[in-house]
Amino acid sequence: MLERFRKDFPVLENNPGLTYLDSAASTQKPAVVLEKTDRFYRFDYANIHRGIYRLSERATASYEAARKRIAEFIGAAAPESIVYTRNATESLNLIAATMGEQAVQKGDEIVVTVMEHHANFVPWQQLAAKKGAILKVVGLDRETLELDMTALESAVTGKTRFICCTMASNVLGTTPDMAEVTKLAKKSGALTVFDAAQFVPHHKLDISTFDPDFLVLSGHKMLALDGFGILYGKPEHLAAMPPYMTGGDMIENVTIKKTTYAEPPQKFEAGTPFMGGAVSLHAAIDYLENIGFDRIQAHETRLAKLADEKFRALGKVKLYRKPDRIHNGILPFNVEGVHPHDVATILGDMDICVRAGHHCAQPLIRFMDEMAMVRASFYIYNTEEDVDRLIAGVKKTLEVFHK
Amino acid sequence: MTTPLDNMYRDLILDHYEHPRNCHELKNTDGTEEGYNPLCGDHVDIKFEQDNGKITDISVCTKGCAICTASGSIMSDILKGRSVEETEKLVTEVKAYLKGERDVEISNWPETLQALSGVRKFPIRIKCALLPWTTAELALKKQIKPK
Ligand SMILES: Cc1ncc(COP(=O)(O)O)c(C=O)c1O
Ligand SMILES: [Zn+2]
User: Fold this and answer.
1) Are residues A261 and A349 in the same domain?
2) Which residue of A85, B13, B66, B121 shows the fewest CB atoms closer than 10 Å?
3) Same domain, A365 and A237
4) Distance from the A74 Cα atom to the nearest Cα atom in chain B, whole angstroms
5) 10-residue averages of pLDDT along chain A (403 residues)
């Protein structure tokens, strides 16, 4: 039973009666993450890599210790393959603007899935348009809502430069078989870009098991501060890619005529970074691993399935996932005859926080033949009481709409 | 006691949501505009017909939430037969009232329009209620050609 973890989260403690079911949008922060970040600013803060004094050395040490910890956490051999960004969105734009810009030519193909978040869709769509390349969108199996591997296999050709694929859909919770995807990519010579933003809050990631070329994540979805994200790139790619932004901290030597760039990852970290973000992600990973991902998954899946079961008993709720396919704490639904936005307003009025709309995944919503959906997303700090309140909220919604 | 929620989702609003009025084909379309609210995906499609500065027919087709759909439906009833000039004034008033920008006297408004007042307690839903009105305003501004 993990219900005791709620007390680790000050926002939940400070808002008694709040049912927070929007962790897939952003998670709350445990006290230990806030405290460790606070301590960094109180004791060790200075600009990194610049000051020749002890304080700056300590700041740099914390900043780089985080990189080592993050590399370890995702199973990357070299800390230098971890680039700090603002979020998953920036990481993806960085890849498209550098490696994408170099690798994609007219007539080439980029393969994405229909369940991508716009962050892993629009940059590729725009790159394809700019280069005269072809964007291929692979669908899902209508029955299981899993990635259609047969369609993926036939979409990938010798012209495919990138396969861009989420590791967990933010709307459906669907998790594709990453090893299969990379196998296809390697056969065709395509590069893989995995969006792990919704995956890492729930799983121990070990990239050595599927060997991606690139992988991105956002700290704020896994208990760390907002505004700090990660790009993992294979060292040989990072070495070959041009910088994304230029300026301070990323150079080796600047003369009036010419600039040479620092080695990765500094090459991609122009300007003073968000040091507290790195410290917070370090602390968040410690916290999560200390609980253990098996327990996290068991807890959130149990709650999501419980809600699913109660919705089925209630009727009048459209559910999109079969119970045995509920993953990553994500439960999408709709209330019959009520627009998702109205559902969210009524739940919100009861202090039940859910997301409603297209979830930045319009191609998927259209694929599902919906205009919008409601999403309840469960995480470690949720409780059975949260499930009961969600059900009560939906009952109230039906009442308000005389359904 | 009526709660702010009940006040927003009152029966008149729900009736217009369940049975939106005036979504139909027009004989002659003098102006048209589509509006979109990315937050909840509300989509409204407005067409109107005018004669001598007067709206003789209007079609408002909404795909969206209860508030947007009801607001569009209520608006369609109200604008039919109004002059373009009056309409523009009313749209300005509705916008100011819903946004709470300034005091607007609403006692002389049609009862159906007054029913939208419950939205004011739900700031992020004001956009939903406004979408048909701002879209109508654009349709009138951009596309009307005086006959
Ligand atoms: C699957 C997925 N990818 C990418 C993102 C973008 O994350 P961020 O907004 O932190 O860049 C999200 C956020 O909702 C997401 O769910
Ligand atoms: Zn709306």
Assistant:
1) no
2) B121
3) no
4) 34
5) 80 96 98 98 90 90 97 97 98 98 97 97 98 98 96 97 98 96 97 98 96 98 98 97 88 84 92 96 98 96 98 96 96 96 96 94 93 96 97 97 91
